[in-house]
What does this fold into?
Amino acid sequence: GVHEGPVLATSLATWGARPALCTVTGELTYRDLGERVGRAAAGLGPSPRLVLVEAAPTVDAVRALLPALA
It folds into this structure.
């Protein structure tokens, strides 16, 4: 199968400076989230595989979950 992580990252980035995630420490824009998702997806490699994602309400958990779903 084709790894869709870069497509998801690009799609997120098209929303630009709009807030994607809001936390008590600040906001993360869609552009920033797209960049983080792209880097994480690249780290997963080209083949689909089983990944473990920490289930927590954190930016890191969202950043890890999105490339795993792509």
User: Anything to note?
Assistant: Strands lie at 19-23, 26-29.
